[in-house]
Hints:
Layout: E1 2-5, E2 25-30, H1 41-53, E3 75-77, H2 83-87, E4 96-101, H3 112-116, H4 122-141, E5 145-150, E6 153-155, H5 157-164, E7 167-170, E8 175-177, H6 191-199, H7 201-210, E9 213-215, H8 216-222, E10 227-228, H9 233-240, H10 244-255, H11 260-277, H12 279-285
Helix pairs in contact: 1-4, 4-5, 4-11, 5-6, 6-7
Amino acid sequence: MIDIDDPGAADGDGSRSEPESSDRIVTITLDRPDARNALTIEGLDALAAAIESVGSTLDSPSTSPSTPMTEPSSRSADCGESPSAAGARSVPTAPVIYIRGRGPAFCAGADLDAVSDFDGDRDRAREFARLGQRVARAIETSPAIVVAGIDGPAMGGGLELALACDVRVGTPASTYGEPGVTFGLFGAWGGTVRLPELVGRGAALEFALSGRTVDAEEALRLGLISRLEDDPRTVAEAIADNASDTLAVLKRRVRDDSKRELQERREAEAFAELVARHAEDIGSVLE
């Protein structure tokens, strides 16, 4: 399940958002704690729809910190819904989206049960990769600033989800890795594009080829995360205090990249080929 928390509304754990800036932040919670928040096809659909639904009024340059924000009743985008159903819901608009994971992990990435079900089918694997890329592109093209609050593991597609965010804030307990190489896969949700952009080609190759996990301190040194904080939400709150129109314009200018779509198509093709080659290896990980 993907939970969308209204600004100032009760969080999924029953608590309420206390900071004054909370009326300018929409919180999206990855809510499969028993599966370390791994993302299925339905979960990716719901997540993309949730992100795409937020921030529509920010396209207007007249939006400012004093502009009233729409605050409907709290909604959740269930993994069983189609993208159109989730996208049709009324979702609050705010200048900042804060993505977090429920429980001890941020996100374990792609649900390997779902990948195993492809049974080596290249077309299904390609579509799955493109769906993950849709989520990443929704983050990048949203007029809202998207902040990832990472507590616990961010692995594979979970790390790629974080890499797509405008700001990545980890806690001291956060860890990061691309373990897919150990069973014949790699991150195909835009990771091969964004990882070298953020950490440099040499560091990206070593990190991805080794399949190793790094702790929060090394992630900060490498550039995988932007900040290290006990409470990542404080960074989202500080950003939300600024002018909405200025935030959106700054993001558009920094994010301008016309070549990425071609790179991601090639990435999806390569992922589909590896799923076909390593179907048995993927299945063995689940045993």
